[in-house]
Amino acid sequence: MTRPGAAVTVPAALFDAGLDAVLAEAARDTGGPALRAVPDGGPAVASDADGDGAGDGLELARAAASAVRDPELPMLTLADLGVLRSVAYAADGAVEVALTPTYSGCPALAEMRAETVRALHDAGFPEVRVVTVLDPPWSTDWISEAGRRALAAHHIAPPGPAPRPSGPVPLTLSPTRTAAPEVACPLCGSGRTEEISRFSATSCRALRRCLACREPFEHVKEI
Fold first, then answer.
1. 3-state SS, one letter per residue, for 75-136
2. pLDDT tens, N- to C-terminus, the chain (223 residues)
3. What is the homologous superfamily of the domain 9-140 according to CATH?
4. Looking at the whole model, is its pTM more than 0.70?
């Protein structure tokens, strides 16, 4: 059941004229806002849909949201991580920020939302709403070049290009420890590394070891 006052998003492809009316009626029944389509673009898009000259305020809001740090990878901002999808003024005048979690059920999302609201309040925006956008899903390709450099500077191997399968996704079973020379050691640069554990401090990172310098390091997995 939709919680009163909660903002919900669905893919734009699901909308048609008849469904819009049903969704609007459902929103009135629950006391929350109507479901709405979201853009299919990538992360961090500022929008001033009304064109009312409020662009300066919107840029300030976007700068505040962009500067929020990821709670699990604090060397990255939400903009660098690519989870900041958009910052826009809603019809009621509130600043609405759209975030896409790195995966469904990410435990860091609640902290991201709270810190984003706090940052915008501190920047002078009293009415802030954070919504979750799941379509299209987040990809490691959205991590900025500055973010990749920050990961490497903190001895975390940045991800390579994300896989882009067409059609069904194959299920491949493999040993826990695998040699993956394409993952270079962020400490000595050697390509001779092995995976120790598929999961590290968080689900989106793996634990690896360099076979040259023998040092362990984390790797942000490609998704």
1. CCEHHHHCCEEEEEECCCCCEEEEECCCCCCCCCHHHHHHHHHHHHHHCCCCCEEEEECCCC
2. 444 444 434 344 333 333 344 334 444 443 433 333 333 444 544 444 444 545 678 999 999 999 999 999 999 999 999 999 999 999 999 999 999 999 888 889 999 999 999 999 999 999 999 999 999 999 999 999 999 999 999 999 999 988 877 778 777 776 655 445 489 999 999 989 999 988 888 888 989 999 999 999 999 988 8
3. Fe-S cluster assembly (FSCA) (3.30.300.130)
4. no
